[in-house]
Automatic annotation (TrEMBL), chains A, B:
Belongs to the class-V pyridoxal-phosphate-dependent aminotransferase family. It comes from the Archaea. It comes from Halopenitus salinus. Keywords: Aminotransferase, Pyridoxal phosphate, Transferase. Its cofactor is pyridoxal 5'-phosphate. Residues 45-346 form the Aminotransferase class V domain. Residues 1-30 are annotated as: Disordered. The keyword Transferase applies. GO terms for molecular function: transaminase activity. This is Pyridoxal-phosphate-dependent aminotransferase family protein.
Amino acid sequence: MSDSRETPEDAPQVDELTPPDRTLMGPGPSDVHPRVLRAMSTPLVGHLDPSFIEIMDEVQELMRYTFRTDNRWTIPVSGTGSASMEAAIGNLVEPGDTMLVPTNGYFGGRMASMARRAGGEVVEVDAPWGEPLDPADVEAAFNEHQPDVFGFVHAETSTGVLQPEVPELTSIAHEHDAYVIADCVTSLGGVELRVDDWDIDVAYSGPQKCLSCPPGASPLTLSDRAMDKVLDRETDPRSWYLDLSLLEGYWGDDRSYHHTAPITNVYAIREALRLVAEEGIENRWDRHLEVAGGLKAGLQDMGLEMNAPDEYWLPSLNAVKVPDGVDDAAVIDHLIEEYDLEIASGLGDLAGDIWRIGCMGYSARPKNVEYLLAALEDALAEQGQL
Amino acid sequence: MSDSRETPEDAPQVDELTPPDRTLMGPGPSDVHPRVLRAMSTPLVGHLDPSFIEIMDEVQELMRYTFRTDNRWTIPVSGTGSASMEAAIGNLVEPGDTMLVPTNGYFGGRMASMARRAGGEVVEVDAPWGEPLDPADVEAAFNEHQPDVFGFVHAETSTGVLQPEVPELTSIAHEHDAYVIADCVTSLGGVELRVDDWDIDVAYSGPQKCLSCPPGASPLTLSDRAMDKVLDRETDPRSWYLDLSLLEGYWGDDRSYHHTAPITNVYAIREALRLVAEEGIENRWDRHLEVAGGLKAGLQDMGLEMNAPDEYWLPSLNAVKVPDGVDDAAVIDHLIEEYDLEIASGLGDLAGDIWRIGCMGYSARPKNVEYLLAALEDALAEQGQL
């Protein structure tokens, strides 16, 4: 409350914002780079200001670089990662379309829910939680169901699994004239991802993972072929807010008003993507491999076991098995309370079985890894382990 | 680009963010208070961090105060104002429901589009652009169509019209067992609005108008009666991202993961709402009346005419008639180029006929008004007027 004025009696008394100083090594958000935080305190211009149009162009250019694509339709969606996910599925899937989704993690289930709400039918390609999809199973599912759209998760945040052989999956889909949507929430900017070379039609991501940007404006890219399907729809997408044919009016040549863009979040993702360009996208993938490799080695030295074998280990999200007799939640609480350090528990089929330790963006630094390993060692000692 | 590292050759070269220093007197965003900008550069905690749960509670308490409601279901929606609008309409309107929308401005048309996409039928109550709804017309529309949901715009940003007699409108709707959704995007925090006293079932707003907060997390409140309708739906809402029955799991007692909240935007709206509480909501309404009153008097002294008569003049958005022979766009360009000052042109039926001058939140200061009047006088002189 400011000193000289009197707060009215019925007004809530809420103190100044003083959140704890966390180190973020969970499944996201990751630690935000100071330059990105500073960008967020920049005074606003209007969302139709000529200077903002330039900023939008720059964000698109940087985002294309990061996705490794020349796709014209590359934009930040005005919401968190689930908004870019829904923009992808809700626009591409029309009533009557069939979408093939994976069962090997939490986010395949979310894809299914979104596809059904869009009016689509859902069919599944099976793999257990903690394993990637097998191209042979995808081929079989295509032969059985002839889906119009195929969604897969490039980097499964719930299981710490990286999907290998992406070009094989996309070529199966394209041989069947289907469109491919890739969930790249936990890969973009941290793990090798080549949208054009791998022939992915639509890819979406979130900013608060390997881009280390606060959530609020989320990357989405569509090929011309995918955008043609969206623009040729017979019925409107079921969301006005996420209707890409309307957003095209704002991000495309017209620059006409659709909704007020989250200006500050666009400033932030611009700065986060500038940091990607300065580092170089391939250097950045290498850094994640190296730093997360150090994390993995440190965990294994402590006697812990990774949930994913090395062939499909996901550097940005390390799923670690909880040893027998250890209370996973007590360890998490100890890290937060004693070390201001965030890691996360398992979700869904893996609840109680794993910890999820992020190594993303600005959090993917040797300093963070050393701190985490020391803190975790202490927490396990508290539990009578080690 | 940082000094010591070499940017890879194929990476885009984008300079540091240096937007112009605008004074924002358009239809939003308004100037953001320095304290809110500072809050946005606060390092993040996780969206499931115990400390963030406290912050969520505080935001809800402050938002209830600002809406003048005790509604439990009072939350910031993770997107800009159109997202809270779609959350309201997309959850309340079920397939088969009929929604009554107004024709007296731009945003009634948006309501209609969202209601149709939600699977509803749309019927209209007519009034010309630039005039409020007449309760007698609303009554007649209810008798003719028996709609399930009635939407109206409390403060029409496209016309500068304030809807008077709100309690009369809500009582007509309730006599017909309908639910009322109020668009309060340009009234919340600037113009008298009493959700509970006026018996409004659902109200939504945006943060970047009279709350002077960057867009990205948008106020929404629902009565228990409205939330019961949402929770009793026979089919899922068509958006997963905006499904209030799922969001209830995160903002309600469970605190379970739905999607990653836009943490920084929640920090920002908390600070913006703290400023409302410190000032006192009624004092804030008075300030808007007084400062915008000075703006209106100044415009009239210059020989300009307001588009709305005094009975339904909207202090937060002043629609001013463009005098004959004046090029409205040239004036807007002159203000931006010579004064770094944003105002806006008319939309839809009023394109070319009016300027829209905001007087919202932190922009509702005598200093801004004096600057605007001086700049506008110069711009009109350039046009050979005055």
